[in-house]
Predict the 3D structure of the following.
Amino acid sequence: MRKIVGIGETVLDIIFRDDQPTAAIPGGSTFNAMISLGRMTAKHFPDTKVLMVSETGSDHVGDIVTSFMEANSVCSEAVTRNPGTQTHVSLAFLDGNNNAQYEFYKDHASASLKDDAVGKVNFEKDDMVLFGSYFAINPRIRTYVRSLMEKAHDAGSIIFYDINFRKNHLSDLAETFGSIEENCRLSDFVRGSSEDFGFLFGTTDPQEIYDRHICQLCRNFICTQGAGPVEVFTDGRHLYFPVEDYETVSTIGAGDNFNAGFLYSLLAQGIRKEDLTGISEQMWDSIVSTAGKFSKNVCKSIFNYVDEDFAL
């Protein structure tokens, strides 16, 4: 039985429009993707276990987050509940174009994973692992994350790293840059948005990013560019995939659900670790198309995950 394991933070997203709160929903970059994957696998691949590795506070918000996971077929047994701490909160302010600007209320220094929770995670060949954002490079929990990724890599799992580097972490770049490179080296796929790379490398040009920073670390690189084309660098090829133009209600979770759709496509098409070398352009087109459909669905609602009745 294949597993999909997500490693990342959990937050409560409070969404504002015209400076007024309109919704409060559980979120987090990897979390959003895992909820979508939980919903889709429960319907179409019920033997696939979807598992989240994360941490929350021991507060009521943490109860909301873990209950929501279980209600959406995402196992919470590897979530650390830290006594005496509060679950992170994110404020998302939607502008006139429905793009979000964020303010985060997080205490990264108090982040903690516990042996009894992380120890429940085992990896096998052809499992899929999604991780990223600051959670993947936070020095406070880096030992745990590195250990998990090394175990997944050694087991022959498929590893997808979403760099998702935010401007508010620029002051941490010197301390965490080595961890970013190490994560890329352990991964089968590296994805990021052009905005991420503008903060991280000072350039938004996908070719330059790949040539200077990624190619020596990871074979497969995916750069998303909002309404611009998705560019893929793989096995010496540079592929372009246009993005459909559509109206959005909110862009929150768009990239996260691109990741979800990407992994779901690998699962649905039976792509395993041994198949990753030499994926055809036609297959890449199918994978990116499915990822785009997940992303499009999320952008049509205020929520961070695909609709419960979403169908491809």
The two ends are 23 Å apart (CA to CA). The CA atoms of residues 13 and 287 lie 29 Å apart. The chain has nine helices and 13 strands. The chain has a mean pLDDT of 93.
